[in-house]
Fold each of these.
Amino acid sequence: MPSVAAKPSELPAEAHVLAPALFEPASPDRSYHEALGAAPALRLVFMRGSEDRRAAPVDFHGALFGLFGIAAAKDADLPVAAATALFDLPNVSAGGTWLRADPVHLRPDMGKLLLFDAAAFELTMEEAVRLTGEINAALAVEGIRLLVGRDPGRWYLSVGAPPAIKTVAPRAVRGHHIDPFLPRGAEARSWQRLANDVQMVLHRSPVNAAREARGEPAVNSVWFWGSGALPRPDAAWTTVVTDIPVAAGLAAAGRLPCMEAPPLHPPATGRWLYVPAAGLDAPERDGHGAQQGSMQVLDSACLAPLLAGLRSGSLAAVAVHLPHASYTLRRGDLWRFWRRRLPRPAPPA
């Protein structure tokens, strides 16, 4: 009698963890290992788990989309905007083409412009709606209609076709001079002209006048990034557990069950993907202290319960994904006391 392959939901459970905290740029090895010392569950996975190295390091979005079977085409963006739009906006089709146009503050500094995204300043939903309304009214002749997501710092532009540009997420530009990070590609100048038009509207905005009168930074530009249409994800996850919009959007595109909070007990069957937000805004806090705090949160809220499930036998494996490798710890690996290997921190972006 031929064997019948088990469905993913019938297999012993595996838990895969992907966290922004583990994709931060390198800090000195000593401080990185000190941070790991405050995260014993994570340290155990690294020391005793099996290593599977990547051909080339990836950033957080590259790793996340890769776990859903999606890779960026050459000189094109990963469709982050299309994924987060599925989470943020009502009645959005999974096949639409979207571009993020997030509100930013550009600050002059010795002849350069430094970028600060909405993680660096307060922006209310009322202000976001009024600002986008002013932009839409002024640029309607160009077909511009910006939409605001669930968070006032996420703005969207629906486009007919993927723009011929390669962009950088504003989080990677935060606090830096913008010139090396501006969009590049065949249509880069067109999009920069549009950004300049938006800046002129924002310069005249009563919303910004009120913000500056209160001593708050003006929203004086938008940052285009994450363009494209989202293909159907090819991933056999049983459930996605995340509080990150882009991961929730990918789950929605793949019609996968998604929950915001981890279950009280580790799963008993299937392949579960955990994408916790620990470390998502670490650059806004203080260097090594931020890194250590993010790892502690990741360790106590996510990895420690999963390792408890591994020890009890309810989980078959726990995998942690890094920029340059993945580490998989199985129950039998817990007894590999002689293993003392630790990975190096993520390289600079």
Note: The radius of gyration is 22 Å.
Amino acid sequence: MRAYFSRTFYSLANRRFRTLWLGTLFSFLGMQMQVIARGYLAFDLTGKNSALGGVMLAFGVPQLLLGLWGGVLADRLPKRNLLVVCQAVIALNSAWMAAMIELDMAEFWMLIVAGVVQGAGFAFIGPARQAFIGDLVGREAIGNAVVLQQLSMNSTRVVGPSIAGTFIAIPLIGVGGVYMLTTLGFIVASATMLRLPPGNPNPRAGGAPRQSPLAEMADGVRYVAARPSVALLILTSFAVVMVGFPYQSFLPSVSKDVYGAGASGLGLLSSVGAVGAVGATVVVATYAGHRRAWSFQPALAVAFGASLVLLGIAPHLAAGLGAMLFVGGLASAFQSLNNSLTMTFTDAEYQGRVQSISMLSWSLFGLVALPIGMVADRVGIQETLMLMGTVVVLLVLALQFVMNRAADIEGDRRAQLLLREAARSLSTGGGQ
């Protein structure tokens, strides 16, 4: 058992990465709690379900518009400073909303503004945090570290909403108290990161001088286009996240219209999916550096698509819960391994920009959810889930076929070398 834990969690033996991991855990927990509080407050202020969609849009649009710039800054500026400043801005944003709620002055437009500020902050935090991991642990442990970072996020998905819901129901705490607690979490995350090294920009290959920010953004896009393994990973992520991950938006409809279980059924479906995600991420952390990790990644994507079909045909709540265990687990396993391989295959000086390109899929999937919802209204939610899963499978298989014919992915010597190095590190316990 001790050997298993050493193999699975060896990146946490690195004190600097452990500091980043703990700080990010507080940030993720605050974000998950605030998602529940924000939705509750939006409905309480307006009495309309569409209000939550407006708040989500306010959060997603800045990420879409600023995401690539976040990647450029992550490769140009000290990553620690960028993380500390952005976390501090998000903390102030949260504190402002907490004060408005406690003073009984909160209005819906304030939630929109707060959503824009928070979305902009995370557009810069995401690429910087991912790129910083490579600086802290080195090439040999980057795959394991990226997956363990994903584990922290999935863990907060299990406990964060429950904590927020419980506190909202306590009169002495309520929504304002939840916002205060999330503010504290963001402050702790910012303060924790002050203990990290600067994370200065990595030197450019051959000592090339820095270009303008716009030129560096274009350079990042060219970098991805010139590396078939990285391009295939990102395109596969887009296909799975944009088409498959909107299932999360339709769980209320599945619970109410298909299973007749209402809010309690929604809580069960969400919790089971989150538990599956945590368990799957632990497994991926053990095998992220495996020499066959490349072939695991499309297999997980196809299996996730199949699990959506399974959820679509589940006739009752018990079967739906069983399907959700696979949906949540396979979604997390694919995302974790895809992120791990993308970071492993990317040169250090490009990691911020490559991560920002990959993260665009998360900004876009909220927009794709709208036409998918229109299809669901027309043909039914179960049929739509089956259609989504089928499209995911077909897109992943098509990408594997087309990209492997267009470019010698299997012969990408750099990718194979990096995988062998990661597997060697894994076999020796991550160089503890």
Note: Residues 425-432 have pLDDT under 50 and may be disordered.
Amino acid sequence: MNSPMSTANPSAIAPDRANTELIHAKTDDVRQAALNLLAESHITAKVDGVLKLRQAWLEGRLNLDVSATIAADQPIPGRPEKPELVPPLQVKRRAMNTVEGRAVLIHALAHIEFNAINLALDAIWRFADMPPDYYVDWLQVAQEEAYHFSLLADHLRVLGYQYGDFPAHHSLWELAEKTQQDVLARMALVPRTMEARGLDATPAVRAKLAQAKDIAAAEILDIILRDEIGHVMIGNRWFAYLCELRKLEPVATYAALAQQYRAPQMRGPFNLEARRAAGFSEAELTALQA
């Protein structure tokens, strides 16, 4: 998407020299550049860098070495000093009848999207020897997640706050850490589980924001839901590819991986229309509801 990105407080997020050198390190390889961006801890540098990375790829200015073994020599993911990360139960409640309550909700959604940028970048650099389209798909996801984050961060500023003003939790990255050794597990449990939960939850959240007459926020969620269907579809595509490659039955394989990695248990109500649009089979939806 060719949408303008937000401009946050420069004094709060200006990159230091080390991270500037890291993010702009000369590389013409998509996967190495994705790792550089994943290690970036400053918000604007990460978001802007993702946009520039995808644009450079679309313009044919980058190479893609699918077989390269790449090692991270910086802590990943790079995280800004704020928000403070706390256990999920310590995150503030989200009352819709106050501006602050809506801001807490928008902040939580922005945090999800910021983590989603990292998850997409991690999927690009970490897993070698996938078909080229796999990396192209996740680069698109990273760019769209950056766009979503910017929409939410901009709206947060309209409400009088900015990203980092409220605590957030770290659990969104836990499955990424658990599945770092196996691309099959990653595809099964991040896009098809964590992101798919967003398909189920978004309509109810949108309704609450609309009821509170925050129509701008509701319209942002419409954009996010539309794009997240595509992101979950990408996860389904590569999960199905890997199951076929390894001669595995998808429904049983997903159940076994969810148990092995202790993935969050799926609870309804489920957005079956969105899940079908994202490529879940009827057999998968039946198993989900059971």
Note: The two ends are 38 Å apart (CA to CA).
Amino acid sequence: MFKEVKKSILDYLQLSGVPEWKSDIDGYLFSRDDGLVRERKILDRSVQYLVRGLFDNIGLDNNFTVHSFRHTFAVKCLKSGMKQQYLMQILGHDDPKTTAVYTKLIPHDLKEEVMKKYPFPFEDLLKELI
């Protein structure tokens, strides 16, 4: 876990009534309950609403959602060389076709990949062909 993420989670837990992290604490990390008894999870819709508000504040359009984080994670794992069979298990998919939906590259990624193989301007290629 990145140290910044760990610090943020520990800060959140302190604010929500968990003074010290212990591995035997039961319940949900992100809970609607305060304190050590954390039986009610934060609803998915609440997280979606919160993140949508953050995205709106920084000017991202409606094409970005909470689910975008999952897609970004999957693409970055593949780009870093992770095998698709591992990623499939991490994402909890049984069918490789489902994982393929998550790993669709955006135009920037595609251009980056092409530039690794053909790092010359398209115009130069046309001059060679014509």
Note: Residues 64-130 form one domain.
